[in-house]
Write a structure and sequence with these properties.
By secondary structure, the protein is an alpha+beta fold. It has one domain. It has two helices and eight strands, in the order H-E-E-E-H-E-E-E-E-E. The strands form two sheets. It has a four-stranded antiparallel sheet with strand order 1-2-3-4, with no helix packed on it. A four-stranded antiparallel sheet has the order 5-6-7-8. The longest helix is centred in the first third of the chain and has 19 residues, at 3-21. It is elongated and about 55 Å long.
Length: 161
Amino acid sequence: MTLRPRILLHAACGLGLALAASAHAEVVGDVDTAFKLIGPDHKIVVEAYDDPKVSGVTCYVSRAKTGGIKGAVGLAEDKAEASIACRQVGPVSVTQPLPKREEVYSERLSILFKRLRVVRMVDPKRNTLVYLTYSDLLIDGSPKNSITAVPIDRGTPIPLK
């Protein structure tokens, strides 16, 4: 196998792994931001992610989604901008001790290299879960980020690893 097909094979495998590892989001809704004659319009999408280790907490992430022909076939690179709001949506229970910092969601924004990430941090002094969203690239990330916090009742201490 020559070098070029080998690189393409590795890229396809990496893409498959990235798709398999991405978080499962529930789309809450979207709004169009720019009309595209061919393909879907550019839009802002709002998605809900339930924290996999903290039942009763849901994070809502809004982000830009590129339309057009590239967006329709999955080749577009979405902007590295997102906003997050996490809320208590039911009784909070932690299924297992949490690390002080842990990535809880990751979703691709381009075919290979850009990812949107959500990291949960525990502030034990204030018994609060802090969620940070940002994007990164293979070489250079983006300083654009958004943060939110979910205070937990003092009667339910957050167990740490």
